[in-house]
Amino acid sequence: MAAEIHSRPQSSRPVLLNKIEGHSDSVNAAVLIPKEDGVITVSEDRTIRVWLKRDSGQYWPSIYHTVSSPCSCMSYHHDSRRIFIGQDNGAVVVSVTVSPPRGLILCVCVCVCVCAAHQNRVSDLIFSLESQWVISTGHDKSISWMSTQSGSMLGRHSFGSWASCLQYDNDTQHAFVGDYSGQITLLKLEEQTCSVITTLKGHAGSVSALYWDPVQRWLFSGASDHSVIMWDIGGRQGRSLLLQGHHEKVQALWYLPLTHQLLSCSADGGITVWNMETTREEAPQWLDSDSCQKCAQPFFWNIKQMWDSKTLGLRQHHCRKCGKAICGKCSSKRSTYPIMGFEFQVRVCDDCYDTIKEEDRTPLATFHEGKHNIAHMDMDPSRGLMVTCGSDRVVKVTHTFVLYINRSHCLEHHFQNSACLTFHFSLCPMKQIISALIFNMSSLTSSLNNLRQNNIK
């Protein structure tokens, strides 16, 4: 069922620990079970499976439960052991996993209720413990929310296109819904009604992934246009940052506050780690013009200027650095510009190219290969684990590198900026918690030196 690849990380790159196989169709979601060596998967083959790691180091299914329709998405709440599954027929299934009296192995999956939440495939769903709601989006162009206490449907809101992904803020009861038109709608959900707060527009393709960080109040979105956008919701200034570092549709996102890193996964298996601690610049809006804003040559739709100047019209392009409308002759060079999120070479005008220094081309992201189609990703930062799944029917458990890359720098940063406080650092390679009580700057230095001397790995 599963193959053990490595028992512990050997390098700073992601290390494949286990590869789980056994599904007969695409695996649409996989989540790690907190505090246990387990993975829950749902698939197009209509099965819900709980895989637990055995003494041999391999994962074997401890629960194999079949439902009536293909499973499209999942949300898992560990404390109550509840699994919420969205199905292709529009239903939301609530199941409970039951443990034996003695032992940690999950052995029984009991279906509690089935709710007809949508009239078409459920694309995403989230369980809110504070509200006791299950919020879901579907291909029937709607978002719905139901009470887990009464099992009744509380409300529904329709959009102009398929709703593809969802995030929810528990404190403010705001929902973020991405759709196939490339828009993200911000809604305020209430018991029986909802109100549209605003609509975010920036993607040129369908929005396929969302991630909400409630602390920084940042919303990250990934789309089929191969780009990621960070929306600064908390700043209330309309600020957004464009990140381009994929060759295919971005399908999974995860932000790590401790290291200020964003992980994005794409359909071709690419995994990009973005440094979000550095100061970045917003990409400019593209300007409109009937002629090149550098050489004044007309574009091909400017019939009057073409007739007056007796010249053929040119094709319009845009400089990614200044946003001006330019012709091909005035933008003959290409360059990366990571500070604006352009990790790959893009078109810039000749004037802007001359202003870009070599240090401006220093990458602010690292690129890795998941080596399989990634449709969904889940992480357990406390253990440094990541699980990915996709249409190749394979689930991969990987030891991530982001929590122990530059670990001494991260620890030093937290120690130097803290006094008279207790902090807990989760060091995943050791699988233990180091607690430090800091009273003054001298103890800060000694604590940091002790950590370095112990050569924590």
UniProtKB/TrEMBL annotation:
One GO molecular-function entry: zinc ion binding
GO cellular component terms, semicolon-separated: early endosome
Transmembrane segments: none
A Pfam family hit: WD40
GO biological process terms held by the UniProt record: positive regulation of toll-like receptor 3 signaling pathway; positive regulation of toll-like receptor 4 signaling pathway
All residue ranges annotated as the FYVE zinc finger domain in the record: 281-358
Stretch forming the signal peptide: none
Keyword terms: Metal-binding, Repeat, WD repeat, Zinc, Zinc-finger
Classification via Gene3D superfamilies: YVTN repeat-like/Quinoprotein amine dehydrogenase (2.130.10.10), Zinc/RING finger domain, C3HC4 (zinc finger) (3.30.40.10)
PANTHER family named among the record's database cross-references: LD41958P, WD REPEAT AND FYVE DOMAIN-CONTAINING PROTEIN 1
Protein name according to UniProt: WD repeat and FYVE domain containing 1
